[in-house]
Each structure stands twice: as C-alpha cells, then as structure tokens.
Amino acid sequence: MNTFTHNSxxxxxxxxxxxxxxxxxxxxxxxxxxxxxxxxxxENLNSIAAYCAEDFRVxxxxxxxxxxxxxxxHQLTYERLQFDIEALLQHLDIATVxxxxxxxxGIVAYRIAASHNVTVTKLITMGASWSEHDVVxxxxxxxxxxxxxAKEIFAENFARYQQINPDPDFxxxxxxxxxxxxxxxxxxxxxxxxxxxxxxxxxxxxxxxFLVSLESLTELQTNIAESSFMNVPFAEHAVYEEQPxxxxxxxxxxxxx
Length: 257
Known about the structure:
The protein is α/β, with parallel strands linked by helices. It has helices spanning about 45-50, 80-90, 105-115, 130-140, 145-155, 155-165, 170-180, 215-225, 240, 245-255, and strands spanning about 10-15, 15-25, 30-35, 55-60, 95-100, 120-125, 200-205, 225-230.
C-alpha cells in the first residue's frame, strides 16, 4: 500500500487528544513526515506519498482535531500542533526526519525545524506562511471563513471527517482553526525563530498564492541559511494539486540530492 487510507493506522494519546497516524513505504529507509493543511487530513497528500513510498518510511499524521484525530481540550495553536508531532516522534523513537508540509503543515514544520527537539535533515514547505505580518495581510479573508462556508470549501474533507472522526464537531474545529490562523502571539507563526533552522530547506509557493506573498517567501529565504525558493507558475495555494508533475520532479530531486 503506497497511499494513506485511514484504515491501517494507529492512535497515540497526547495531552488529552487521540492523534492518528499511518506509516507506509520502506521501513528500512529514512523517515519522511507529511504534514497536511488546515481542515484537511493525510489523504490529501496521497499524491506525494505515492511516489515517496519506495525510498522513504513515510509517516502521515492527522493534525489534532482533523481527520481521525480528536481535538481534546487544549486550544488549537501551531505550537500545540508542533508539540503533538514532537511527542509522536518521541513515541516512535524517531530522532531524525525529513518533512514535507503544506500550508498549516508547513508552518508547523518551520516550528519543528527551528526548535531542534528533533533533527530535521531536509524541509520542504508549500504555501506556508511564517510571519505574523502574513497573518495581518490575510486577516480579512480568514475572518470570512465560517463553519458553513468551510463545509462547502472543504466538502470532501468534511464528508470524510464526519465518517471517520471518533468525536466529530466540525463547527468547533473550524472556529478553532480560524483562531489559530489569526494568532499573532508566540504560539502562532515562528517569526524570527526561522533563523534557527539549519535543515536544508526548499520553499515553494504558487505564483498566484492568495495567502503567501512572493515578498514574504523571498524574505524568508534570506533568513534560512541553507534554503532554496521556487515560485511555481500557473498555480495558486494548493500548488502540489495544481502542478503535480512539476512538484514531483522537484521534490524527488531535492530529497535525493
């Protein structure tokens, strides 16, 4: 099996929540952690998982409250999601990882790489903001998202969530996610701590990404010592879905370099 199915995984109790994860691929190869976007789940990254499974031990995690993971009683923040992932890796006795993170997953990945609680060898982010200034720029759009609009925007994920989540409450999840997106405190975006990232890093965005500006990511590149940047043409936010062949070629080259 080279894709995530929500049928073959396990749950780990972490600070009041049951965090669901699946492993596919080659158990003898380096670990590749896939972190999905907001209001999505591990199945959204199956296109990437499929072509990485031969050469990596691929681990997909449903973020707290998402997919098959429960929300628990803690406030949903990027810091909380970072702690969840680090606790899961400790549970699995994994000290070194490569990470691919999309949107919210990329923001969490920045925080993990900057913390050095685990060793991140290679880091790839797609459509992932990093600064509180990004929040301010996107604030107007983010505040328009309601539980009802999210059910339409994320229709496929909503349907799957209703079916597989052990304690479904999509309205609360959406409200919690919007609050996380708008968080400008230390529990939110990594801000200047990105300078502590030592992993070899690839930053990617769609040329027409409406959440992450070109200026923001070019500034980020100057703050991460060993980083490259790719602005993908003819794509918006979900660049891996809109330009899958381009992303596959670049990810393979970067991961195997």
